[in-house]
Design brief:
The structure is a homodimer. Chain A is α+β, with helices and mostly antiparallel strands. Chain A has five helices and three strands. In chain A, a hairpin with a 2-residue loop joins strand 2 and strand 3. In chain A, helix 1 packs antiparallel against helix 4 and helix 3 packs across helix 4.
């Protein structure tokens, strides 16, 4: 019954950390090396690499080794899967409210 | 520089597991006890309780102890924070594409 969507699991897990969300925002302004990413956060290179690896596994970031440094850039994913899941959930909540609303109106009618 | 949004962290973390996403979908069809939730997944009660606790911490599910069982229902949250973050990210990607597009058109003009 459980729908396995490993890509969606990885997307939501990648977005569940504030530093990783900030890294994505930073890369939105242009590519950066691991050191350039780590510096404003006062983060160790090792810590930064770990975050970048999680983003890379979720295909949100791509990296390229250039000389002695690793350049990071945003991947092409538009978070369509996460977007669709959340939209589906919100729609389900709306439909529940509509049903409740109809039920309450119906009960009111019967009371008259 | 990192924006602490613990609620958003918990939301994305809660959604990063397929069983928890299915529990939310199931509760969308109506409230259920822990046993009723666990059964279709062939899950242990302990395992199910853990998932429900994560959803409760993210305020996506509310629970109420009734007699010997615990009844679970969807919380009122419409995932607005997660929705807004993802929309912001998609908009940022679109703006980057627009800039690239303008840049390419400009370069073409200069080549003529």
């Amino acid at each position: 019954m459980v729908q396995y969507q490993p890509q969606l699991d990885r997307t939501f897990a990648a977005l569940s950390d504030p530093t990783r969300r900030e890294i994505l925002q930073r890369l939105g302004r242009g590519s950066a090396t691991i050191s350039e990413l780590a510096e404003p956060f006062g983060m160790s290179l090792t810590g930064c690499k770990k975050h970048v690896r999680v983003l890379e596994d979720a295909e949100l970031v791509s990296t390229e080794k250039i000389g002695r440094s690793r350049r990071c850039a945003l991947g092409p994913r538009r978070l369509q899967d996460a977007h669709d899941w959340i939209e589906g959930y919100r729609q389900m909540l709306d439909e529940r409210l509509d049903r409740l609303d109809r039920f309450l109106h119906q009960s009111e009618g019967e009371e008259r």
